[in-house]
Amino acid sequence: MPIKRYGTEKSGAGGQNLPFARAVEAGGWLYVSGQVAMKDGEIVKGGIVDETHLTIQNVLAILKEADYGLEHVVRVGVWLDDPRDFWSFNGVYKSYFGEHPPARACVQSRMMVDCKVEIDLVAYKGE
């Protein structure tokens, strides 16, 4: 079973090369690394609504690149910097995942970069 890695050549915030792939595919499973509101290698500051939209759009771009869709998403992990952002985040999240709700965990956590939300996920598509 071959393993395919996506985005190992991409740079992170400040132009740093990151020591992980944006996603890894093996045996029909796609593991997408945590994504934040980043554009052109820089964190885009905004409120929780704007950051959530951009973060999910980044996740969707990776899914599309690997030929997966929201209907293939099995599990989502969410980290919020501020628990008071939960309901606003949840409204944006539902607008994307409402028709194909995956399993999900959502926790409060201090972030490693200056953002309000981080999302990772696992998708499955039979071979």
Describe what you observe in this structure:
With 127 residues, the chain is α+β, with helices and mostly antiparallel strands. The protein has 2 helices and 8 strands. The protein has helices spanning 48-65, 86-97, and strands spanning 3-6, 23-26, 29-35, 38-39, 42-43, 73-80, 103-108, 117-124. A hairpin with a 2-residue loop joins strand 2 and strand 3 (29-35). It is globular and about 45 Å long.
Output mean pLDDT.
91
Give the tally of β-strands: 8
Q: Which word captures the global form?
A: globular
Low-confidence stretches: none
Helix and strand run: EEEEEHEHEE
User: How many H/I helices?
Assistant: 2
Q: What proportion of the residues is helical, as a percent range?
A: 10-25%
The main β sheet shows up as: 6 strands, mixed
Structural class: alpha+beta
Q: Reading side by side through the largest sheet, how are the strands ordered?
A: 1-2-3-8-6-7
